């Protein structure tokens, strides 16, 4: 059974808070060697919400300069509250070689279907490549419904996928039933790591999940288990990842915890985040180390 696991990468900054080319390339190498299917830069894990256009372009340039392995997919989050900026950044990413862009609908105020449709109607015709809708109700205050998704994907042929960041599986399953019945090639990904198997078994494409920054090799084994139709291995991996979901509870927000995990594994040197995020404490680092040991991943720090 075919499946994909795509990593929404963290954004690595140097000690002065500037985008660091060398460390980001080390992260990308780690993810690609780990065996996942691709990456999305400038998603939620990538702190897009705290960057201006110049910093966002710099991260696109850094990713574009990295030598991608054959078949490794590359997407860019180009979410902006200003639709014009979202279009500008999306086309910049596509010009730089991105396979597509991922765009969240406007946040702060809950929106009805007409407002959401209007937003994508303003941007989709002006973007010269594939678009994934990014649904994250915990951040926007509302959900993009399956019916509206089908309407958008039918009206705009460059809306080709969907990331559904919802803890449960019912909404994602309804998306799969509603949209893929009419548009079989439409890609639907879950946004929580532990929903990967349910997504694939229900007919979805897989997951875009943050834990694969730190432990991509575990998720590659999950992909391999599906490819081999080894349901016993799929189940074992499910139980492992269910335990690893404790990673998200180590600290809130979780992004500094992902960076600390990467430092502990020796992938990057800097766990600097955009303000007001704070670095992981010593106690949090100890818990992250314990979770990595549970997963069988060695720490070098």
Q: How would you describe the overall organization of this protein?
A:
- This protein is α/β, with parallel strands linked by helices and 301 residues long.
- The protein has one domain (4-254): TIM Barrel (Alpha-Beta Barrel).
- The chain is built from 12 helices and 8 strands.
- It has an 8-stranded parallel barrel with strand order 1-2-3-4-5-6-7-8, surrounded by 6 helices.
- Helix 1 packs parallel to helix 9, helix 9 runs antiparallel to helix 10 and helix 11 packs across helix 12 (282-294).
- The longest helix is centred in the N-terminal third of the chain and has 14 residues, at 21-34.
- It is globular, with a radius of gyration of 18 Å.
Largest beta-sheet details: 8 strands, parallel, barrel
Helix-strand string: EHEHEHEHEHHEHEHEHHHH
CATH fold topology: TIM Barrel
Query: Terminal Cα separation, in Å?
Result: 38 Å
**How many runs of DSSP E, i.e. beta strands?**
8
Determine Rg (CA atoms, Å). Answer: 18 Å
Note poorly predicted spans: none
**What is the architecture at the second tier of CATH?**
Alpha-Beta Barrel
Helix content: 40-55%
- Structural class based on helices, strands and sheet pairing: alpha/beta
Percent strand: 5-15%
- What is the CATH class? Alpha Beta
What's the structural domain tally?
A: 1
Whole-number average pLDDT?
Answer: 97
Strand order of the largest sheet: 1-2-3-4-5-6-7-8
Our count of helices gives 12
Task: Assign the CATH superfamily.
Answer: Aldolase class I
Shape: globular
């Amino acid at each position: 059974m075919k499946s994909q696991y795509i990593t929404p990468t963290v954004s690595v900054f140097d000690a002065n808070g500037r985008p660091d080319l060398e460390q980001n390339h080390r992260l990308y190498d780690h993810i690609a060697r780990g065996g996942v299917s691709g990456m999305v830069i400038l998603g939620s894990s990538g702190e897009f919400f705290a960057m201006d256009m110049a910093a966002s372009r710099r991260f696109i340039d850094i990713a574009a300069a990295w030598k991608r392995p054959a078949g490794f997919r590359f997407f860019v989050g180009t979410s902006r509250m200003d639709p014009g900026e979202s279009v500008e950044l999306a086309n910049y990413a596509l010009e730089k070689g991105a396979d597509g862009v991922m765009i969240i609908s406007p946040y702060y105020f809950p929106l009805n279907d007409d407002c959401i449709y209007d937003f994508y109607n303003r941007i989709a015709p002006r973007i010269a490549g594939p678009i994934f809708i990014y649904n994250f109700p915990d951040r926007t205050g509302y959900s993009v419904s399956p019916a509206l998704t089908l309407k958008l994907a039918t009206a705009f042929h460059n809306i080709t996928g969907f990331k559904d960041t919802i803890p449960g599986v019912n909404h994602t399953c309804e998306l799969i039933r509603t949209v893929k019945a009419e548009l079989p090639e439409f890609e639907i990904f879950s946004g929580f790591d532990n929903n990967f198997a349910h997504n694939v078994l229900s007919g979805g494409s897989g997951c875009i999940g943050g834990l694969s920054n730190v432990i991509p090799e575990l998720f590659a084994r999950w992909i391999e288990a599906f490819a081999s139709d080894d349901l016993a291995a799929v189940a074992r991996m499910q139980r492992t990842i269910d335990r690893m979901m404790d990673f998200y509870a180590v600290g809130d927000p979780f992004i500094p915890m992902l960076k600390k995990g990467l430092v502990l594994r020796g992938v990057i040197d800097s766990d600097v985040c955009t303000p007001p995020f704070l670095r992981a404490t010593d106690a949090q680092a100890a818990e992250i180390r314990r979770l990595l040991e549970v997963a069988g991943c060695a720490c070098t720090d």
